[in-house]
């Protein structure tokens, strides 16, 4: 081996980017590769080749005791890299927990609850990635900020009430108009976020002293803005952050109208409407949406061009047989999964001129609460059952939704049911009369046990996919008609459309106080909102004042069904009623399930915390009901937890007492009980308002009882 010369060291090389040391190493490597190693032993070592004197700094000691260790910089850099990896992993865990906690809270973002992502991350780190501890700390932080906001508001009001300082002459400075501001909303741990509005004086927030409530400023009477702020306790908890709190005292302060005589004239009472709402129920994959899509096609609502587009889209998605169902299932998630997930609503006009509002309810067991909300809006029901081999046994047997849907529809007030025996074209044999009669024989006893009367139960065989026996102007194809030849031989009854026209119009509670159950509320501009829902009793015109219960806010009706005409009326038989109101501070204070009533003392809807009810337990009740049993109560789209406070004496159909002090209630039993609700709910006695006086009880995903309200205790 030869040592590198000075000339070689000075020669530029590609390794110059690595420094002088790297350059010398690379030159040595080239020399070594050019040598012949035949004369060297395999175990060659050259201790002096990598001498420290040539590579280490001059500060190294001669004996090498304090010489720096080679590779220390690399070790230090590796430690920094590993530390950075740990920090990245920690940040990833913090981000995942932040998203998880946000899903628990139920809001869209942390800014909706008055916190930033950085503040939430700090709370998570302080809690050492403990979800429960972090959530409790978030609640405490929201509570502290709420208390601080209340203190600031009270201090501003105190300053505003102070008299002006002595010696002040001349007119007082003009006070800006009160500015409506929104405070941080409450955390909502339920299905949808809620917000709480705080109306603060804008001048006070900007540090200006405002005059007293009755003091005149420059000839203008200044009145303090009323606050709709929901009170919150200092110990913030999950149960205290559910929904806007009721404010019944505000009703007495803001001026309810005095009691007046009923404004319903005789002509209005005698006027009837041919509009009917129908809920479509049945087991999942029974063909409900397909049958309703076929009905839209035969009634002319679904055009041939729209049908061709649905057929192309469904074929491209690999679901060619779902093209009729997609006429009802318009959501992308529903189309992707092939399952109805929410109540779809369409209106059709039958050949006789009757307007039929279709409420296509989901059939999956996970969406039973939404089915209950749809059944609560319906006058009649269409029960779709599959006739194909094995499907009916699965739908009507244990675990199927046919039984639960039927009893829920009856519990929600539906008295007429039409059973559509679907998919007879794929039964074995096809269009079998024996199969149709067997299905009817199995359904009849159960529907009678649910409370339906025999005269109000009807059956019709159909095929939603081919359109056989649906009726209307559109006829099935010649091939489908040829396949249905055996069916024409034994069936001579009505078609589906004819059976729908034979539904009787139920009586309407027009003479009762106005009750409107809110389904949705949308903000329009600064102080207006459009409210859609269901009118269950009474009537309403433009210009009248409404109260939303239980929050207690008062509005004025500006439009009804898209018009300002005083002749337009909202009635229980109105088709898709919509009300536009003004003087709305925060649209979140009109939550779904709340009730609108007229601003009259005698027409306010009752608020209930304890109710005396009559229950009918179902066969799905496996654990007997005792004092203290907890359930989830469903009332027209409103869900609230409740518990059994007391079991009352049981009576039979004749009214005689059969159990004075019952200790428990078993399945398939009629009983009376007192229910304690966890929060205030708008309910009424069944005799006064049928829609607000009926409910269903569910436990562990099963409907265990249906009932009616007999008395409101507190």
Overview of the molecule:
The protein has 714 residues and is an alpha+beta fold. Helix content is 29%, strand content 21%. The chain is built from 19 helices and 22 strands. The strands form five sheets. It has a six-stranded mixed sheet, sandwiched between helices. Strands 9-10-13-12-11-14 form a six-stranded antiparallel β-barrel. A six-stranded antiparallel beta barrel has the order 15-20-17-16-21-22. The longest helix is centred in the first third of the chain and has 34 residues, at 72-105. Residues 9-30, 39-83, 167-243 and 245-254 have low confidence and may be disordered.
Summarize the structure.
By secondary structure, the chain is α+β, with helices and mostly antiparallel strands.
Give the terminus-to-terminus CA distance.
104 Å
Q: Describe the strand arrangement of the main beta sheet, using strand numbers.
A: 4-5-3-6-7-8
Estimate the global geometry from the Cα principal axes: globular
Q: How many extended strands?
A: 22
- What percentage of amino acids are in beta strands? 15-25%
């Amino acid at each position: 081996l030869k040592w590198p010369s000075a000339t070689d060291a000075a020669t530029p090389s590609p390794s110059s980017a690595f420094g002088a040391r790297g350059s010398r190493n690379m030159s040595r490597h080239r020399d070594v590769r050019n040598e012949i190693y035949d004369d060297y032993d395999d175990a060659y070592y050259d201790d002096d080749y990598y001498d420290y004197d040539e590579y280490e700094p001059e500060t190294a000691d001669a004996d090498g005791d304090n010489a720096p260790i080679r590779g220390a910089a690399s070790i230090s850099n590796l430690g920094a890299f590993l530390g950075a990896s740990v920090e990245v992993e920690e940040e990833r865990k913090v981000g995942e927990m932040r998203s998880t906690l946000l899903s628990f809270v139920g809001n869209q973002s942390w800014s909706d609850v008055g916190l930033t992502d950085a503040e939430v991350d700090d709370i998570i780190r302080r809690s050492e990635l403990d979800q429960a501890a972090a959530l409790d700390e978030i609640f405490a932080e929201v509570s502290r900020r709420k208390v601080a906001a209340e203190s600031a508001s009270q201090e501003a009001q105190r300053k505003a009430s102070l008299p002006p300082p002595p010696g002040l002459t001349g007119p007082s400075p003009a006070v800006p108009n009160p500015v409506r501001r929104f405070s941080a909303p409450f955390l909502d741990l339920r299905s949808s976020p809620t917000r709480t509005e705080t109306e603060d004086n804008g001048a006070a927030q900007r540090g200006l002293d405002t005059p007293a409530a009755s003091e005149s400023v420059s000839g203008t009477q200044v009145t303090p803005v009323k606050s709709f702020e929901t009170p919150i306790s200092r110990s913030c908890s999950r149960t205290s952050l559910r929904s806007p709190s009721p404010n019944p005292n505000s009703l007495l302060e803001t001026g309810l109208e005095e009691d007046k005589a009923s404004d319903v004239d005789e002509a209005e009472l005698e006027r009837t409407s041919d509009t009917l709402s129908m809920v479509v129920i049945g087991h999942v994959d029974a063909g409900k949406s397909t049958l309703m899509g076929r009905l839209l096609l035969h009634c002319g609502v679904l055009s041939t061009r729209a049908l061709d587009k649905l057929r192309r889209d469904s074929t491209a998605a690999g679901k060619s047989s779902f093209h009729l169902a997609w006429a009802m299932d318009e959501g992308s998630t529903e189309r992707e999964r092939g399952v109805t997930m929410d109540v779809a609503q369409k209106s059709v006009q039958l050949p006789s001129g009757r307007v039929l509002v279709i409420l296509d309810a989901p059939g999956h067991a996970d969406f039973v609460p939404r089915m209950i909300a749809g059944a609560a809006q319906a006058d009649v029901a269409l029960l779709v059952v599959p006739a194909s081999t094995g499907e009916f046994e699965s739908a009507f047997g244990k675990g199927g939704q046919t039984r639960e849907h039927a009893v829920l529809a009856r519990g929600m007030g539906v008295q007429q049911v039409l059973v559509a025996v679907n998919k007879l074209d794929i039964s074995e044999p096809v269009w079998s009369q024996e199969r149709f009669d067997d299905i009817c024989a199995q359904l009849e006893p159960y529907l009678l046990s649910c409370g339906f009367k025999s005269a109000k139960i009807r059956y019709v065989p159909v095929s939603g996919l081919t359109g056989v026996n649906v009726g209307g102007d559109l006829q099935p194809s010649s091939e489908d008609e040829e396949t249905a030849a055996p069916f024409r031989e034994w069936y001579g009854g009505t078609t589906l459309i004819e059976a729908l026209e034979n539904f009787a119009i139920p009586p309407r509670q027009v003479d009762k106080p106005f009750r409107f159950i809110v389904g949705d509320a949308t903000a329009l501009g600064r102080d207006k909102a459009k409210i859609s829902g269901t009118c269950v009793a009474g009537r309403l015109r433009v210009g009248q004042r409404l109260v939303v219960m239980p929050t207690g806010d008062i509005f004025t009706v500006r439009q009804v069904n898209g018009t300002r005409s005083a002749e337009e009326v909202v009635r229980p038989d109105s088709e898709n009623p919509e009300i536009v109101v003004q003087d709305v501070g925060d649209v979140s204070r009109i939550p779904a399930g709340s009730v609108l009533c007229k601003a009259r003392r005698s027409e306010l809807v009752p608020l209930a915390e304890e109710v005396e009810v009559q229950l009918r337990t179902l066969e799905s009740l496996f654990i007997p009901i005792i004092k203290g049993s907890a359930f989830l109560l469903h009332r027209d789209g409103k869900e609230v937890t409740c518990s059994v406070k007391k079991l009352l004496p049981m009576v039979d159909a004749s009214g005689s007492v059969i159990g004075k002090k019952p200790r428990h209630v078993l399945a398939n039993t009629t009983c009376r009980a007192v229910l304690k609700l966890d929060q205030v709910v708008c309910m009424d006695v069944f005799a006064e308002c049928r829609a607000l006086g009926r409910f269903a009880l569910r436990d562990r995903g099963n409907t265990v009882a249906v009932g009616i309200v007999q008395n409101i205790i507190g």
